[in-house]
Amino acid sequence: MTRAQENLQTSFADRHIGTTAADQQVMLDAVGQPSLDALVRAAIPASIHAAPAERSTIPAAVGETEALAELRTKAGRNTVRRAMIGLGYHGTLTPAVIQRNVLENPSWYTAYTPYQPEISQGRLEALINFQTMVSDLTGMATAGASMLDEGTAVVEGMLLARRASKVKGDAFLVDADLLPQTRALLDHRADAVGIALRGFDPVEGPSDEQLEGAFGVVLQYPGASGRIVDPSRTIERVHAGGGIAVVAADLLAMTLLASPGDLGADVAVGTSQRFGVPLGFGGPHAGYLAVRAGLERQLPGRLVGVSFDADGQMAYRLSLQTREQHIRREKATSNICTAQVLLAVMASMYAVYHGPEGLRFIADRVARTTSALAGVARDAGFEVVHEHWFDTLTLRAAGRAESVIDAARDAGYLLHLVDADTVQLSVDETTTPDDVSALAHVFGVVDATVPAAEAAVRDAATGLPSDLLRSSEYLTHPVFSAHRSETRMMRYLKHLADKDYALDRGMIPLGSCTMKLNAATEMAAVTWPEFANVHPFAPRSDVEGYLDMIGDLETWLAEVTGYDTVSLQPNAGSQGELAGLLAIRGYHRSRGDLDRTVCLIPSSAHGTNAASAVLAGMRVVVVACDEDGNVDLADLRAKTAAHAETLAALMITYPSTHGVYEHDVREVCDAVHDAGGQVYVDGANLNALLGHARFGDFGGDVSHLNLHKTFCIPHGGGGPGVGPVAAKAHLAPFLPGHAMAQQVDRRPGSSADGTDGRLAHAGGPVSAAPYGSPSILPITWTYVRMMGLEGLTRATEAAVLGANYIASRLRDAFPVLYTGESGLVAHECILDLRPLRETSGITVDDVAKRLVDYGFHAPTMSFPVAGTLMVEPTESEDLAELDRFVDAMLAIRAEAAAVERGEWPADDNPLVHAPHTAASAISGEWTHPYTREQAVYPVPGISARKYWPPVRRIDQAYGDRNLVCACPPIEAFA
């Protein structure tokens, strides 16, 4: 091999890290540091530097081809059978046009949460479609932009019912036919906030005694067993007492059955998974929550609404953002701070592509196939337990259940074993007459043929009750009938993607959010059938590859954080927070410390910290920060002393929310431990520590991590995310467990079943599926496998260098608000724009919107300090892109200076009118004191890569005053 060829053999880390060695030297010179090592040693306190690992559990890095080959081997250890287990998870057919143009398209999966609506109109329209789809099918007035999964959506429905109910009691009624994983979630979450659950038979309904003091009810429709019961009588009785009715409804079934709204429900919850989103061993999937009129301002999570821009053009935006946790903190009613946007987009486009007629056809075929199987089962001597069904049958035959389960597995099918006499099976859109024939043989009908099965399906009547058939219309908006051909659908998806700004266009310098490269090789395995088509409750023997990969990640993540154990179950960062706090709660209660309920939280913390603490049954006490943004040690010691008998935990983010490495972090942790509390270290900023310091070494007891930040899972326009929780051994028994998990947990030292040393997790679940969102875990596995510990360490160094380079180049134009003792920042810096407003009237909003004209997504606005921009370049951006951003910010400062000098009026300049659309630049007479060229081409060379925002600045207040959260009529676009 020649030297030239050797130079071309770059590692994956070289591809992932945007700056070269030569670039980094230029940047180091600007920062005033001689080397990367000197930089991180100056920035990170010496007291927390981790000693190099003598032997890492993370294997040496391999190339992209080798990593995928290893992952293929793991995938090959999974067995993909036709899953007919049901229980809220169903096989589905993802239209190829949606898979290729949404799921596998970086224009969709690398976008950020649409806080900047002017550059998010595409995904906001897709989410409006999702909200309309859910509202129509459930018969509700308003739906949110998605929830994390069905189980957590039911929990949120319960909490909403408690807020909205006129009943002051603490009891919640629970349908005995609720999905078992949902019931387990309710048990765990209700206990923490003092809610008593009362189960009842859905046929008989709750007793008068059970209704006493009940603020609400949840009903499964159809039930987990497949039974269809009219819920309206129970709803009426709950309403009579002032309670709120929540119905967990199957969206596909709602195309044939009367909707929850038709039956009087107040809240509808569920999942959209069967609308084209693969099983994925349990996730990620888009849950949903919808409410009747009058409850829309109680909705948790994201809500997309309609407003108008500066030209009076209709535009979409996130509504009611004052509900966000970083504003309401401990008064927040939910800790959900994200959504499952990418999956909600897929589900909405499934409905757009199929339309109401297509969905009804699919549902009708499912119902008839189920009825055909009921006939087969009866012929085989089984009792069909319920009178009515949609897609699920419960079959009973004395002593035959296990043999049927085994025979089905041998034939390639997974059924659900209820007990020794009872089997359950669920039909989905992938079930064919071939499957009906095969299952007939499994049941013992020897003469079953495919033609006979085809005829049985064709001639079968549905098992739906005649008095519950749907009569109301749904999906009548033109968007659900305009895109039937693949050509139209492809162009619609392209049209929406072109409206948006994602990482495939340029840097998204969001502080605290780490919008780093999501490499194509990391994404490759997500759609492999061995990962995509696996049911979350498949038997262990079918998922050894998944468990192997999950075990690797648990081990690797434990090592880099300094903890003893990791649970991958939390399916969002907020849920990881909650899981960690619930583990602390469980630990204290196990020791008899029932009064330890106080959670100390610094004033600078992200708002989800406080919201999670409240939902974990804790009382928040705020700890002050000093003028440098660090935890005020004197105030901390005073608070720990004042609450010495009741202190449960401290939550602290490291590096701090202000973007600096606190030098007193060991003292902070020691003070809390001395008072009997536990230390929760928020792992949101782990990207600034990997390879150099570990939470568990400097005092952390438990942390959540953000795989969608530090470990490269894409943000997807606002989700999915994964928020694993890592802990010391004493908290392991209280981390999330799951009754249907395939992993057999053992204590250290045991080698039985090959689980050698995995600490048992026996706490209650925090997500519906045992491993949360496992189908996207191959992304993180591949990233770590290709980076190795050395590459992860290099990534940290490059990220810290990038932030300090931007800070050093911009500090004269925009003061850097916080730095550490060395004058350095961590992986992000806060630019203070408040002086600019005082001298020019230009606001942080003006700068953020003007950056769009320069071809950038704005940094994080007004967090953690109002009137500031928090900038995080990440290690993925190259020097040219960093300089392009710096040049844009300096040019914007020069524009503001022109306002200061009076060259442009304070109310008529390119900043206050930003962003500028193409239409605004070419239409009509130009009356502004700046030129058209200054408006849309503010720097040389931008025309070659110009991003044109589709709308001008949006009126946020109007949208909140006039709440419209479904597809507007076509006339609104005129």
UniProtKB/TrEMBL annotation:
Residues 795-916 form the Glycine dehydrogenase C-terminal domain. Belongs to the GcvP family. It comes from Curtobacterium citri. Signal peptide: none annotated. Pfam families: GcvP2_C, GDC-P. Its EC number is 1.4.4.2. The glycine cleavage system catalyzes the degradation of glycine. The P protein binds the alpha-amino group of glycine through its pyridoxal phosphate cofactor; CO(2) is released and the remaining methylamine moiety is then transferred to the lipoamide cofactor of the H protein. It catalyses: N(6)-[(R)-lipoyl]-L-lysyl-[glycine-cleavage complex H protein] + glycine + H(+) = N(6)-[(R)-S(8)-aminomethyldihydrolipoyl]-L-lysyl-[glycine-cleavage complex H protein] + CO2. The gene is gcvP. This is Glycine dehydrogenase (decarboxylating). GO terms for molecular function: glycine dehydrogenase (decarboxylating) activity. Its cofactor is pyridoxal 5'-phosphate.
